[in-house]
Amino acid sequence: MNVVVFDVGGTHVSAGLVRDGSMELQGRCTMPLDADASREKILGAFAELALAVLGKCHAGVSQLTGLSFAIPNPFDYEEGTSLMRHKYASLYGVNVRRELALRFDMEPRSVCFVNDACAFLIGEASKGAAVGAKRAVGITLGTGVGSAFMVNGRIVTEGEGVPNGGYIWNIPREASIVEDFISTRGIQRLYRERGGEDISVLEIATRSNAEPRAYEVMQQFGAVLGTVLSQVCAPFRPDVIVLGGAISRSAGLFFPAAIAQMSGMESQPKVSALFEDAALVGAAVSWYVSQRCPIAVS
């Protein structure tokens, strides 16, 4: 079986191929994706990327078994219908499952969807930083904040210590919400408050090695992150908290400050072991589980 898996972001989409139940990614490709593009261009980009992955793996369309997407909320994952308006608005109300199944001449049930934060944690639990954990939390830090909670290998959205729906982005904090503090805009706001210009988080992180202002921003971000993680994760009693997303690549700059705020917790955060591959692996696992097919995780 050949399954092409996708990780749909706000500005780009990545894809790779998994074969016969092994979670080894092959033919990985990434391409920019305009979230404001037309329905036809977005769906066409998904199809084009799938063909590129198959081409790199010397596989034809006739050998394609299924597609699996790690994609952000709001989305009806069971039906395969997009409910997004803030980005990919042209897909609002579109049954993406049916559209792609028609393009690749496959049964609609062979096209699957999973929340991107859930896919991240599933990937890390399968072959990353959360392997063996009975209770795990996955947090993705980037333009927004994604979250997922897992018990015994299954994503949970309710139960002891699980915030409503498994979401932490909208939890109230200082007359605002958590996402306004532990995200790209949170770091950029801290930098501007210190008189800095409006630059990327990567640039702020790079400057922190020589610029006291940038260093202080990353330290403050870490302290806020640690406080938030203590607040939202402690009631769940996780064995591990895994951080992913673009911001976590600079974890060395803010981890000590975060951990200092989490001294009362038994579990400490870990950085993703798979990074950009985590959601792709999670999408693959989700597809095989949905089809009740065996999985071989090395």
Terminal Cα span = 17 Å
Number of helices: 8
Number of strands: 14
Overall pLDDT metric: 95
Q: What kind of sheet is the major sheet?
A: 5 strands, mixed
Strand order of the largest sheet: 3-2-1-4-7
Q: Which stretches of 5+ consecutive residues score pLDDT under 50?
A: none
CATH homology superfamily name of the largest domain:
ATPase, nucleotide binding domain
Envelope shape: globular
Question: How would you explain this protein's 3D organization?
Answer:
This protein folds into two domains: 131 residues, Nucleotidyltransferase, domain 5 (2-Layer Sandwich); 141 residues, ATPase, nucleotide binding domain (Nucleotidyltransferase, domain 5, 2-Layer Sandwich). It contains eight helices and 14 strands. The protein has a five-stranded mixed β-sheet, with helices on both faces. Strands 10-9-8-13-14 form a five-stranded mixed β-sheet, with helices on both faces. Strand 5 and strand 6 form a beta hairpin. Helix 3 crosses helix 8 and helix 5 packs across helix 6. The longest helix has 22 residues.
Describe the SSE topology:
Blueprint (H helix, E strand, L loop, with lengths): L1 E7 L3 E8 L6 E7 L6 H18 L7 E8 L3 E2 L4 E2 L13 H8 L7 E5 H12 L7 E7 L3 E7 L2 E3 L15 E2 L2 E2 L6 H10 L7 H7 L4 H22 L6 E5 L6 H10 L8 E3 L6 H13 L8
Parallel strand pairs: 1-4, 4-7, 8-13, 13-14
Antiparallel strand pairs: 1-2, 2-3, 5-6, 8-9, 9-10, 11-12
Helix pairs in contact: 3-8, 4-6, 5-6, 6-7
